[in-house]
Amino acid sequence: MVAIARTDLDVFPLCLGGNVFGWTADEPTSRDVLDAFTEAGGDFVDTANSYLVEHGQSETIIGRWLADRGNRDEIVVATKVGGGRGAVRSLSAATIEQEAHASLERLRTDRIDLYYAHFDDESTPLEETLRAFDALVRAGSVRYLGASNYTPDRLTAALRFQRDNGLAEFTVLQPHYNLVERDFERTLLPVVEEWDLAVAPYFALAKGFLTGKYRPGADAVESPRAEGARAYLDRDGEAVLTALDEVAAAHDTTQAAVALAWLRARPGVVAPIASARGTDQLAQIMPAGTLTLTPAEVDRLTATTQVASRT
After folding, report:
1. Block mean pLDDT (10 aa), the chain, length 311
2. How far apart are CA 114 and CA 171, in angstroms?
3. How far is the CA of 157 from the CAs of 61, 151, 152, 174, 195, in angstroms?
4. Which keywords belong to this entry (predicted)?
5. Widest pairwise Cα distance in the chain
């Protein structure tokens, strides 16, 4: 387990993404994945009010599973507000209060362990948004707060306002970050280090590219993300795959586990987020929770995209 700084949360160092639940994984399959995840030691699940086909469908599936298994106290549940389209993509006080209570109902729980601002909302005054989040924490509906998809300047402004006004602070950042997409390191990492934020990266496997199944000439299983995954082959992707293959072979594990373990070794990262459309995919990522790479292996992987990350 790993402790999330400035909270009393200890989590398995791999977070199960619920974005596929109700989308590419139907409810029975989603429940199988959740069962297998917890049986293997996992306890950290990430979802959002906007996932996916129907509003809150992922939360609904997770909520039914929690109720049936009676294991709510054993699971750290993270969800989000401010994603989706139209009026839902708002961080107004009214939207935050309404959507938080809707999420609580769908999740069949009385509290959200970690509640993220899914996307920044510059049309709503920052003070209004942050005071609304603070009210949820004070009411006990939310335990801790997180942010996602903020610019460095806006995130810093939010953190400073929270601290200056004695409000509940963002303690976790969920950025877009993986071995082949490393803008986070030059943009948001300085904010993370200054404010002691924990990092839970999304798109940790680069739309599946870092699983190793998308290769030149390979007949990979088609998925909604396949085209995007193959695009990484044009960004030194073959060098990345070669390095993943070598490190995975040395540990007798999967390329996906190695890519996630690389993230775990990066500054500030506590638990990369990865999803699984079935228990077979889950088996590919679970070793990442216990896999420790050598410093030389971390450097080998880092070097494959080091130049690209600075451009």
Report:
1. 96 97 95 98 97 79 98 98 80 96 97 98 97 98 98 98 98 98 97 98 96 74 61 80 97 98 98 98 98 98 71 38
2. 9
3. 35, 10, 9, 17, 12
4. Oxidoreductase
5. 57
Q: What is the rounded distance in angstroms from the CA atom of residue 240 to the CA atom of residue 60?
A: 37
The span from the CA of 117 to the CA of 159, in Å, is 13
Between the CA of residue 311 and those of 22, 127, 237, 301, 307, what are the distances in Å? Answer: 37, 34, 16, 18, 7
Please identify every residue annotated as catalytic: 51
Does the reported pTM lie above 0.85?
yes
Contact by Cβ (8 Å): 79, 41: no
The residues, any chain, with a CB within 8 Å of residue 166's CB and separated by 6 or more, are none
d(CA 299, CA 182): 15
What is the spatial distance between Cα 274 and Cα 37, in angstroms, rounded to a whole number?
12
* CATH number of the domain to which 102 belongs: 3.20.20.100
Number of domains present in the structure of the chain: 1
Sheet holding 15-17, edge to edge: 198-199, 170-174, 142-148, 112-117, 76-81, 44-46, 15-17, 273-274
Tell me the chain's radius of gyration from C-alpha atoms.
Answer: 19
Question: Which residue range(s) make up the domain with 273?
Answer: 2-309
- The residue assigned the tokens 């993943």 is 244
